[in-house]
Amino acid sequence: MTTKLSLGNLGAIAPAVAKPSYARGDLSPGIVHVGVGNFHRAHQAIYLHKLFETGRDLDWAIIGAGVKHYDAAMRGKLEPQDWLTTVVELDPKGFSARITGAMIDFAAVDPAALVELMARPEIRIVSLTVTEGGYYMDADTGGFDAGHPEIAADAKDPDEPRTVFGIIIAALMKRRVAGTPPFTVMSCDNLPENGHVARNAVLGLARLRGDDSAAWISEHVAFPCGMVDCITPATGPREIAIVAEKFGIDDAAPVVCEPFRQWVLEDNFPQGRPALETVGVEFVDDVAPYELMKLRILNGGHATIAYPSGLMDIHYVHEAMENQLVTGFLDKLQHDEIMPTVPEIPGVSREDYYRMCVERFSNSAVGDTISRLCLDGSNRQPKFILPTVRARISQGVAVDGLALESALWCRYCYAETDSGKAIPPNDPNWDRLTAQSKMARDNPAAWLAMKEIYGDLGENEAFAQRFEHWLNALWRDGTAGTLKKYLARG
């Protein structure tokens, strides 16, 4: 027997489930958040929920928003339950559930209405989780893609915007005319220098308008960078069943996540901000060192375990962490090559951070999959692995394990595991990657010739030689045999 989630039914939900202690009627909006997906509801919305539980800053509630068809679908799921969400933390020691109410409305998926909403004076922050692909980045340069058809359409008709950045610009210009101070644009997406990326997208489109909007935005609008972290699986039948069977709640769009979350933010909010430091958010002058630590140790660690596990037909991440060859590879590569490239942060232990990552990877309750970690390697490798390779090369030190990691990715893109099972496409450039991998079986240099990924690294003799050595070993000895040889090197 389950209870349909809604404000009116909160009293009927089991006492074991934490419910909002604040009255929803006491909240008023201060944030418009674009992209009401699982990560937002497991991360930013949780921090605000916790803040409201203390009785503070009740004028910073969220109005959800979106511009895509799936945003309309999410709105349709959340509206009947009064915008409430059940968040279940998957701690192996015992699951816990809370109902969060930090979002008090969800705007209609209508660009004109969204411009009007963002132009309201009480909105002081517009935040985003629109995924890396939502920032219109050029695949080759990493900069803003001014030629994207959606951007071109907004540039041609700026008064009828369709992209989130066109809508943001239109709202900012409306505030400018009205004499209303501009809101802060806060990216909450998991990508390097997310504030700079958001700024580049807004300014890139504004420059195409042919007016002075780009100059005004550059001078007056803040785009703080932030580092965000919380493993949040997609919601499927398994997750809905957990919420229904363990907690008796009928939630159309519940969220499950690990019990860990982190948020480090540059303190750059000219129109004010909620006191999130009271509920665990770290405000710093420079996010870059924290971001670098996460990118190299956590994200680089995920990449390290992903491809050998995929080649050995390991399904779940926690199962990979039970395999001594995988964990041995992770531990040796981290300590020998990755962690030494991460600068010290006062008061933060790299070793403690790494051990925490290992604990998180080992969480069997999350059910994170190796196939998810293997996704989109052509975008992830240049962000999570290859900068570390370059840092090591610049220092004149070994890249042996990093070359093996790259060889494992190449071997994985052959689209066949060691046992002969087919690996389904999992990258926007899968066909090209597979073709290059097949050529690299006899000519390893063919893989490193992908300059859009490796740049000039293929011309570095030290890296290229070790890559060739390990790729040949993978074809000769298999993944397990190759890892044993790597670990035996001491």
Using brief descriptors, characterize the structure shown.
13 strands, N-(1-d-carboxylethyl)-l-norvaline Dehydrogenase, domain 2, five-stranded parallel sheet, 11% strand, alpha/beta, Rossmann fold, globular, 490 residues
Describe this structure in words.
This protein is of the alpha/beta class. The chain folds into two domains: 282 residues, NAD(P)-binding Rossmann-like Domain (Rossmann fold), CATH 3.40.50; 200 residues, N-(1-d-carboxylethyl)-l-norvaline Dehydrogenase, domain 2 (Orthogonal Bundle). The chain is 46% helix and 11% strand. It is built from 21 helices and 13 strands. The strands form four sheets. Strands 6-3-2-7-8 form a five-stranded parallel β-sheet, sandwiched between helices. Strands 5-4-11 form a three-stranded mixed β-sheet, with helices on both faces. It has a three-stranded mixed β-sheet with strand order 9-12-13, with helices on one face. It is globular and about 65 Å long. The model has no long low-confidence stretch (mean pLDDT 96). GO terms for molecular function: oxidoreductase activity, acting on the CH-OH group of donors, NAD or NADP as acceptor. It holds the Pfam family Mannitol_dh. It comes from Oricola cellulosilytica. InterPro entries: 6-PGluconate_DH-like_C_sf, 6PGD_dom2, Mannitol_DH, Mannitol_DH/Oxidoreductase, Mannitol_DH_C, Mannitol_DH_N, NAD(P)-bd_dom_sf. Keywords: Oxidoreductase.
